[in-house]
Model the fold of this input.
Amino acid sequence: MSTPAPPTGLPELPVTFRPTRTRIVLLSVGIALLVVLTAISLLLEAFTAGDRATFIGTGLLILGVLALLSRPRVVADRDGVTVVNLTTRRRLEWAEIVRVNLRRGDAWVHLDLADGTSLPAMGIQPGMARDQAVADARALRALVETHGTGRSAT
Done:
């Protein structure tokens, strides 16, 4: 049995929304800092083994924090949406999402939920790629309207 094609304009499921440019910048900077700190620790002869370990450990810590900052994403599939933020992951059924909001000045998309709460979806953020974030928010909004009981708001 084949699955029906999505309505025109909807992304094919599953789809992942994430701030790709931001992710590339964060991970590149983290790796570059780790390489530089490791090179400094190995090249300076006055450093003890403890000093070297501290430099490399600091580079690893910075890379870890930047990797954590690059983690957010929103994954939509046939059954619902998974929102992965910095330290949390939440699975939502389509019917739980009432509205998808990305207003001017918002740092990221907010999902209004059926229980009256709002969930930030940091995987769609206009920081470095505003046009892409707006397109992603519209695509998620269309998916919510198609698969759930949602209403959209701009």
The chain has two domains: 21-69, 74-147. The first helix runs from residue 20 to 43. The helical segments are 20-43, 49-69, 130-147.
